[in-house]
Amino acid sequence: MNKSYFVLICLFVILGCNNKKKDKGLDINLTQNNSTINYTEIINKIDTVYLETNDSCLISNVNNIYNVDSLIFLLDKKQKTVFKYDVTGKFLTKLCNIGRGPNEYISISSFAIKRAEKLVVILDCTSKNIITYDFDFNEINRIKYDEKTIVRSLAPLKNGNLLWITPDALINNFKDGVWETNNNNKLIKHHVSFSEDYKLMWINEPVYSSFGNGLSFYNCYDNIMYMVDKDKFRQDFRINLKQKCSKDILRLEDFDKKTFTGNSFLYYGHVETKGYYLIKYFSSLKGELCLMIDKTSKKKRIIFNKVTKEDIEIFNSKLFCYNDNSIAEIHWDDVSLRPSIILYSLKLN
User: Which of 60-74, 281-295, 325-339 is predicted least confidently?
Assistant: First the structure.
């Protein structure tokens, strides 16, 4: 009997190993079988939030959006400002303390919302400060980090810690990749590594998505999607991209998007809902494409950006996470230039 149990256990182990070997990732060819799909196949409803516009809230660009507690926070890097609206689009206030004096900052490279604590965190790469505010933009604290450290982006964790995305770290014992820091900016854990050969800084920011209680990170150099589950990283899937950029491109520190030629596709940001990932890629020949992946079945669809409804080009610009079932896109009125948030509610799996 014991021998039989032993044989069964061995079979289970072998089968388990074989299953792992079969998990070779998702084969993606972005130039094959592309077809424009009707928006009704993926979108359940479209809503519009018209943002109030006056002399106090003239937005030039939107780099990130957070929707939390019936509030909308928008980052405008060009103006170094975070705007706060209610969910109807009414302007409430803004963070715009630009300068080199006390309680001021020089730039906003990235920002994050700690939902549980109701805090706004900004990254000032110029002065090497991470500054925390309450939702009324009263400063809570600021902590300076190492001058030799290059941090590109921040993301919040449920436990109150932050993720640092650092593609080109410069200090000893600080590998390139994704690090977790506590409230004192102390490095406490290294989650994901990047090859030291990868230096490309043109990658579209942010390389993570944060919606509701969800958080994911896309390793744009190796095309791996990670889920953050209970504040721990786990690989969700690897994309075997036929048009992956060569290592020669990924080794460049920077280059002009306009001079990017050939059939290769670069990661251009991603968003997610409870049921789907939407990953955007850029090619000089094909423009931007959106890859939609079902989180459960891993079924994949390629979406052209020129999917239209009522003269709105759906998925034609940068996309943002909004809530569990909706993604957001900024639309600018052609005449008044008034910005609005277009909300796409995706059909459930």
Answer: 281-295
With contact defined as beta carbons under 8 Å apart, do 273 and 326 qualify? yes
Return the SS3 of 195.
coil
Please compute the mean of the pLDDT values over residues 108-136 and round it to a whole number: 93
Cα–Cα distance measured from residue 75 to residue 162, given in angstroms and rounded to the nearest whole number = 18
In total, the chain counts a number of residues equal to 349
**Dihedrals phi, psi of 102, to nearest 5 degrees:** -60, 140
| All domains of the chain in start order, with CATH | 26-346 (2.120.10.30)
CA distance 93 to 48: 21
For the entire predicted model, the pTM comes to 0.84
How far, in Å, CA of 159 to CA of 27, rounded?
35
Token couple for 205:
């920011």
Which residue is it, tokens 């190492």?
146
> Rounded to the nearest 5°, which phi and psi values hold at 105?
-135, 160
